[in-house]
Records
---
Amino acid sequence: MFTVILVMAAGVATGYVLRRLPLLQRVERTTSLTILLLLFILGLSVGSNRLIVDNLARFGWQAALLAVAGLAGSVLAAVVVARLWLNDGRKEDRP
C-alpha cells in the first residue's frame, strides 16, 4: 500500500513541477478514458472467473454494501473538504 501512495505522491509532485507543459494537457484529457478502460478490463477478468460468477449471488450484497459505504464516505469527505478549505471567502447567511 505504501508503494501505491509513494507512486501517487511522486506523480503529484512531477505533475506540479511540469504542469505548464502542453503534453500534460493532453494527458489530462485521456485520464477518464484510461480509467474506463481499466474498469472494463476488470469486468472482463471478473466475468471470466467462474468461481466469482458462481458465488456472486452469495457475496454480491456484501460487495454492494461496501460500494455504497465507500461512495457515502467519499461524498462526506468531499463535503467536509469543500466546507473547510474551499469556502472561497464567502460567508453563508445563517438564520
Note: The chain has a mean pLDDT of 85.
---
Amino acid sequence: MEVPSRAWVRLPSGRRLDLIAPTPFDWTDEDLATGLSRTFRWGGHSVWPAPLSVAQHSLAVLALRRARSRAGLTQPELRRELLHDAEEGLLGFDCISPLKPFLGEGFAALSARLSAAVALRYALPAWSAEAKRAHKAADVALAAAEAVHVAGWTAAEVRGTLGIKATVLAQDPLAAAHGEEPWRPWPPELAAERFLATLKRLG
C-alpha cells in the first residue's frame, strides 16, 4: 500500500500539524489542551452522561503520582506525568490497549514520532526504569478505577476479563481539589481549561 507523503490536520489555532512528520512547533498549548479534552478514554463509553477525556485522566495520573512520591517530583518530572498521553490529543485518538497490536508497526511509529515531538517541545526528561515503574503503577491504578467508576465494569471483571491486577481505587485523586462529584467526567471545555492551567503552572 502506498504511504502518503503527509497527513495534515488543522488545529483550532489555525496551525497545521503533519501527523506523519510532526515538529515541536506545530501546535499551541491551547491546541493540545483542547485536543486532549476532546479525546476520550474507554472508546468514549461511559456510565455517566459524558465520556472521560484524556485531559482529565492525565490530571488524575499527575495528582496520584504527586501523592505517592515520597521524595517529591521536579517540575520537568511533573510535566512528564501530565503529558504522558499528549500524543493522543494531537492524534485525536486514544486506542484501547487490546486493539493496538492490530494497528501494526506503522501506527506505533507514528505515535512514537508525536511523542518525541512533545518531549522536545516541553523539555521532558527521559524515563528512568524506576520513574517508569512508578508512573505505570499510577496509570494502571487509574485505569482500574476508571474501568469500574466510569466504564461500568465490576472489580471482578477488571481482574478477570480486562486483566488489570491493580486494586480499584475508591478515592478520586481530583475530586477534593476541584470540588467535583468523584469520578464524574468533566465537560470538555472545563477539562481543557484545567489541563491548560496546570500545564502553564508547570511550564
Note: The chain has one domain: 8-201.
---
Amino acid sequence: MPRSVNSVASRARRKKVMKHAKGYFGRRKNVWTIAKNAVDKAMQYSYRDRRAKKRNFRSLWITRINAGARQHGMSYSKFMGQLKANEIGLNRKVLADLAMNHPEAFKAIVEKVK
C-alpha cells in the first residue's frame, strides 16, 4: 500500500505560520524553518508580555498617584491607607487618571481623606 501523507493539512499549517511571519526581516519571513522558529519565539514573548503589561501599568499608575499625592503633602502609602480607611472605592487606574488629567478633582479626594 502506498504511503499516505496529509499534504493538505501540512500545507495549511505552514501557510498559517508563514502568515504570522509576514513583515519579518530577511529570511525570517520566507524560509520555513527560520520563520517557524521566529514565530514560536514571538508567541512566547507575546504570552509573557500580556502578563508583564499588567504589572507595568500598575507601577505606572502607582508612580502617578504618588506624584499627585506628594504635591498635596502626602505619601502614596499614607494616601492609599486613608482611602481604604474612609472606604473610598476608587481603583489605581482611575486615581492615576484623575492625578494626571483632573488635578482639581484629585485635590478634592486628597482633602477628603486628610
Note: Residues 32-71 form the longest helix (40 residues).
---
Amino acid sequence: MSDILLVQNIDSYYGKSHILFGASFSVKKGETFCLMGRNGAGKTTTFKNIVMLVPPKSGEVIFNGKKITGMKPYHTARLGLGLVPEDRRIFGLLSVKDNLELGTSTGRLGHWNLELIYSYFPALEEYQERMAGTLSGGEQQMLTIARTLMGNPEILLLDEPTEGLSPVMIKVLKDLVLKLKELNTTILLSEQNIKFSMAVSDRVAIIDRGHMVYEADVDTFRKDDEIKMKYLSV
C-alpha cells in the first residue's frame, strides 16, 4: 500500500505554548491508523494541523503527494480530507437530512449519497426529519460521521469518536468502522479506548506530551503491556 498522508516533523503552538514537537507519521491508502495518547497529549492538535484548522508552525503535511501545509481548511476538504471533530458540531436546529446534505458542500463526487448513507445508518433515515439537536449523543456522533462521508473524502479523520458514548454505542461504532474498512476506506483515528482501537486498527502510534514515542502494527501493540502501562495508564 502506498502512503496517502505524510506528516513530517510538524511543530505546533497555541500562542507561546509549544504543543507538538517534530511529530511525524504516515498513513497508507486503505488502512486504519490510530493515534493514541492520554488527554492533552496532542492528538486533536495533530488533527487540526493536518486539515489546517491550526496550521503547523513548521514541518510539512503531504496528501496524495501534494504539500498542503498552509492551505485553507476548505481547500483541504475539497482535496479529500474529511474531519469528524471530537465536539461533533452538528447543526442542532436543522433536520438530520439537512445536516447530511450540508456534507456535500465539498463538491467532491463519489459513491456516498443519501441512499447509501441510510443503508449504513438506518436510524438516520428513521429520524431524517427530526431536528439534529434532539438526537442522543451516540446518534449525533453517527450523524457527524455520516455527514463527513457525504463529502466523499479520501481519508476519514475520526477524532475521539468513542468519547462520551455508552458501551452499546461504542459497539455500534466499532461495527461501522469495520464495515468502512471493508469498503477500503482510509481512516486516521484518534482514540484513548484501547480495546476499541485494537479492534479496528491496522497500525498504532502513541503521542505523549506532544512527542511521538511509539509506532507498531496492531498485533505488536496488542502484546506490549509495558508500553500500554507507560503511556496509556492501563
Note: The CA atoms of residues 208 and 230 lie 10 Å apart.
